[in-house]
Amino acid sequence: MGFFDTILLPFTWAVSWVLSMFHTVLSFLGMDSASGWTWTLALVLLVILIRTLLIPVFVKQIKSQRAMQELQPEIKKLQAKYKNKKDQLSRQAMAMEQQQLFKDRGTSPFAACLPMLVQMPFFFALYRVLVTASQAADSGETIGALSIEEVQSFANSTFAGAQMSDILGDHVGENFDLNVVIVAVILIILMVTAMFYMQKTLMGKNMSEAAQTGQFAQTQKIMLYAFPAIFAIGGFNFPIGVLIYWTATNFWAVGQQLFIIRRNPTPGSVAERELNERRAVKGLPPVGKAAQEAAEKAEQEATKQKGQRQQPVKKPRKKR
Fold first, then answer.
1. Where in this chain does the entry annotate a coiled-coil region (predicted)?
2. What is the mean pLDDT of residues 210-239?
């Protein structure tokens, strides 16, 4: 066992055990234990479990993103302060002041990647389970918590005509298999489209005007195209089971993000304006930045009225 496999061993056992449990429960409920659809549903349930456990991380990600958006005016001021200073000491001072801003708000430019980074060990563990399934099935070995029978069942099961352990890159040359190519390409397109749509929606609807320029906006734009491109290329080396996992993960993330954006949007964003428009139709008061602006306006009006000098009322003279 290599060093990488040793590090992943706890995650491999966890992923394979959960996958085995879901498969066992689905088989008990009457689904064919050898069917690829049973294993597919077990993978989807694995996604739901992992994403549910990651909800606290996702909430932290949302808070960090909003803190980064709120920091954009301060970061612009800092950049203007050191605009014409190119020496090493000035660059270090700017970096230190910027890091202090991030520290004070408890955020960083890379906080948006947190859920994916946390999920990566489980993904690599699942990748190892799926990619070694065929070899383990031929040699009669177990993989993590999966028994020999489960490994063979998984390796031989098919999804829409393609085996779970099939890899697109292995079937585009001499071993060309049209079924595998069609299934893999469709899953890659769905996976990448969902990822692109999720990031595009975040940038278009859930970012304030101030945050749509500067370093944070540049980071988001890079993520918009970089991650889909990486996963599209990587998809050629992903087994069908891994493609199913990531496709289900991305669709879950899209639904989760749309739910958050609709009910708890970023202050000053398009989504917040749409929320307040819906609330206005229902006769409800505004929330977020609009509510804060309304409160500040009311306070200014009240202060203005208090500051006005009250004119004395002239008393009527008594008749003699």
1. 68-99
2. 78
302 pLDDT tier (thresholds 50, 70, 90):
low
Evaluate the CA torsion angle 306, 311, 312, 317 in order and state its sign.
negative
Sign of the C-alpha dihedral computed for residues 40, 41, 42 and 46 taken in this order: positive
Most confident of the following: 160-164, 198-202, 247-251, 273-277: 247-251
CA dihedral 189, 190, 194, 200 (to 10 degrees): 30
Q: What is the rounded CA–CA span in Å between residue 244 and residue 304?
A: 62
State pTM to two decimals: 0.73
Are 174 and 206 contacting, i.e. CB atoms less than 8 angstroms apart?
no
**Residue 310 has which token pair?**
């009250």
Q: Which residue has tokens 């069942």?
A: 153
Which residues lie closer than 8 Å to 302 by C-beta, 6 or more apart? none
The crossing angle, in degrees rounded to 10, of helices 270-281 and 289-307 is 70
Q: What region does 210 belong to: left with phi over 0, alpha with psi -120 to 50, or beta?
A: alpha
β-pairing, 162-163 with 158-159?
Answer: antiparallel
Residues 6+ apart with CB under 8 A from 174: none
Residue labelled with tokens 């090493």: 88
pLDDT digits (tens, 9 = 90+) for 30-55: 998 888 899 999 999 988 888 888 78
Confidence at residue 187, expressed as pLDDT on a 0 to 100 scale: 94
Burial of 13 (0-12, 13-18, 19+ CB in 10 A): middle
Look at residue 186 and give its three-state secondary structure: helix
Tokens encoding 285: 């008061």
Contacts of 127 (CB under 8 A, 6+ apart): 238, 239, 242
CA distance 49 to 43: 10
